Amino acid sequence: MERRSFLRVGVVGAAAAAFGGASWSDAFAATAQPGPSPYGPLQAADANGIMLPSNFTSRVVARTGQRVTGTNYTWHAAPDGGACFADGAGWIYTSNSEVAITGGAGSIKFDANGNITGAYRTLSATNVNCAGGATPWNTWLSCEEVDRGYVYETDPWGVKAAVRRPAMGRFKHEACAADPDRKVIYLTEDVPDGAFYRFIPNTWGDLSAGRLEVMIGTNSQTSGPVTWKQVPDVDGSPATRSQVAGTKRFNGGEGCYYAAGICWFTTKGDGRVWAYDAANSTISLTYDDSLVTSGTPPLTGVDNVTRSSGGDLFVAEDGGNMEICIITPNAIVAPFLRINGQSSSEITGPAFSPNGKRLYFSSQRGTSGSSSGGITYEVTGPFRT
């Protein structure tokens, strides 16, 4: 048995014995394995080339290089990480642009019925804006995925100017997630020997100053207690991930999402979904594509991640077979949707509307396979709440 399989069996056995995989708060779904989706099987592709469960529908809300319907805003190239924000009875979907030099971010506004009422730029002239995260005070943190990249705090309404946040560290940022319970923000790093960070602002709600820390643990560790140590020099020279002895390495940090005491994050280099139990400062594996015990892993190329109000994780694939898969609280992993005919793309930016009834996401390169071919979608249906 290979080492990763042995480690996984140990995690699964301990969790199953203690909790039976009953809920996230109990076992972190450490036993996640393929099974029937609670939404049922995927149906034939619709007119947009998307395979969905019964009673779900899709629509295209934006295409790179074209004006968003009813607006003067031309949708940006390579749409990537995104989030939704409540706007009265409606909402806003904010999306990054993962291109060099001109990256940035843009937003689309919707009314209570899902009609588009506006679109505009919220961040300009930044570099390879990949993922990010929403804050409890309704800003979008847009992350640069370049060496010594910055985090920019942006206004989804496009009223306030974006602000660079160097105190959050300069490294190859991917995603971040705000933990309002402990008043910290977690951050992932997209390099093979990356770290997992947390930023502790001096004042919650103000990201201009604070302390950046890295997770401490052994590189082979897949479960158990971890600690944190401060990064002495956050400007990235030397690299933040190289400054603290004992820093735990994560192979290609990607998506990051916090809810109900847990921060989930993904690592593409080893096909894993991790769970950090913030209250107890422990980690565990939620999913590992190489350790699926029966059949072909339904989820590969793990990337952006979000969570529904019903507690299901929705994990987007970069590659794989262009699916968004769910991982349920009772440890089932299954496809939720699949995009046909776009094998040279990746799925990015999954985010739910505030009412939980609509899921937004993008195919970053669409059918063309280039950054100029991005397509942003909405899926509507009876999501579990």
From TrEMBL:
Pfam families: PhoX. The keyword Signal applies. The keyword Cell inner membrane does not apply. Residues 1-29 form the signal peptide. Residues 363-385 are annotated as: Disordered. Keywords: Signal. Residues 363-374 have a biased composition (Low complexity). PANTHER family: MEMBRANE PROTEIN (PTHR35399:SF4), SLR8030 PROTEIN (PTHR35399). This is PhoX family protein. It comes from Kibdelosporangium philippinense.
